[in-house]
Specification:
Distance between the termini: 18 Å
Number of strands: 13
Number of helices: 12
Bound molecules: 2'-deoxycytidine-5'-monophosphate
Radius of gyration: 23 Å
Order of helices and strands: EHEHEEEHEHEHHEEEHHEHEHHEH
Largest sheet: 5 strands, mixed
Shape: elongated
Structural class: alpha/beta
């Protein structure tokens, strides 16, 4: 037996819309989980107190869900909770990996129920970490912290100060006058260096390689890790990096290690650069990716490594949506 969760929202509190929303949600759950209506043991609904027009359980019955027990409950008023929302839990016969379904404006588990948690996503360059993290953060309505951006801002400061990035003392000196901060605008991270927004400026191939070099200095790492831990302590968030699960947050509730073949990652990076109008030959991107992986993996302090308890995902043959869905299902199995 498996329990599957889902939720949807409605705009207008009228019978016709409630019928439509409930049918759409249940049909989608059945479809995504490849189960039959007759496998359902019971369906439990709860709805926010702004629903008056129609019982979700009655809507389910009318939609043909007639071989199972049905129950509808009213949720108490909760500050900050999503309005006009219908939630559901189905108990279904069978042994399968449950896919929870959230439609329209509905997000995964309500924040007040799920409590605080952190998700660590580590992996090499080009594994799709940052895109995947942004999408997951949006779906779960949580913060997304791109820790690479912090090391990139450090690299930018060193370049601007003309410091030798291999030299720990020069890097340390350059960073004495660097204040690195992150803020969020419409859920998107902006990275600030001494109060100036450098989010876009730090996305060049030169900064990528320099960030890898600068991030190997223990002093740089300890400063950035402190900031990352502080943010993770205060917020439910998803962090992408190289050492999040192994070093920054060894007790993170969820850990994933995302990787793909170097050739696939280089292809993705080339396409990304092309889209930004940067023309760099595929061979040179591949070379850079391999060099950066090597540098990140072999450094002494907190190298790129899969934490023993992290779930390994090789997404060479998966697209972003499939990767996001895989991770979300793993998370929702537990929260
Ligand atoms: O994820 P990214 O490409 O933006 O990261 C740039 C570099 O920063 C990466 O090559 C290694 C370093 N980095 C790190 O050492 N630890 C992290 N948690 C994130 C990035």
């Amino acid at each position: 037996m498996k329990a599957i969760r889902g939720a949807t929202t409605f705009e207008i509190d009228c019978a016709e819309q409630i019928r439509g929303c409930v049918k759409e949600l249940l049909d989608e759950i059945i479809k995504q989980n490849s189960v039959k209506m007759t496998d359902i043991i019971y369906i439990l609904f709860s709805n926010t107190s702004d629903l008056h027009s129609f019982y979700p359980a009655k809507a389910a019955r009318e939609a043909g869900y007639s071989n199972c027990a049905l129950f509808s409950a009213l949720e108490p008023e909760i500050d900050g909770a999503l309005k006009k929302c219908i939630r559901v839990m189905l108990l279904i016969n069978g042994d399968f990996s449950p896919k929870h379904v959230y439609l329209r404006g509905a997000k995964a588990l309500r924040k007040d129920i799920s409590g605080k948690y952190n998700i660590a996503i580590d992996g090499p360059a080009g594994s799709g970490k940052s895109t995947v993290c942004k999408k997951i953060a949006e779906k779960l309505d949580i913060l997304c912290l791109d820790t690479g951006a912090m090391y990139r801002a450090c690299a930018l400061k060193c370049i601007e100060a003309d410091a030798d990035i291999q030299n720990a003392a020069e890097v340390s000196n350059a960073l004495k006058s660097a204040k690195i901060e992150v803020k969020y605008e419409n859920g998107c991270q902006r990275t600030l260096l001494n109060g100036i927004d450098v989010t876009d400026k730090i996305r060049t191939p030169q900064i990528s390689m320099s960030a890898s070099t600068v991030s190997a200095h223990p002093e740089v790492r300890s400063k950035m890790v402190e900031l990352q831990r502080q943010i993770a302590k205060e917020h439910t968030c998803i962090l992408d990096g190289r050492d999040i699960g192994s070093n920054v947050l060894p007790n993170a509730e969820f850990k994933f290690f995302l990787t793909a073949k170097a050739e696939v990652r280089a292809q993705r990076r080339s396409a990304e650069l092309k889209q930004k109008g940067v023309n760099q030959a595929y061979e040179s991107v591949l070379k850079e990716i391999i060099a950066r992986d090597e540098q990140d993996r072999t450094r002494k302090t907190a190298p790129l490594i899969q934490a023993a308890d992290a779930i390994l995902i090789d997404n060479s043959d998966m697209n972003i949506e499939q990767t996001v869905e895989y991770i979300l299902n793993k998370i929702q199995e537990k929260i």
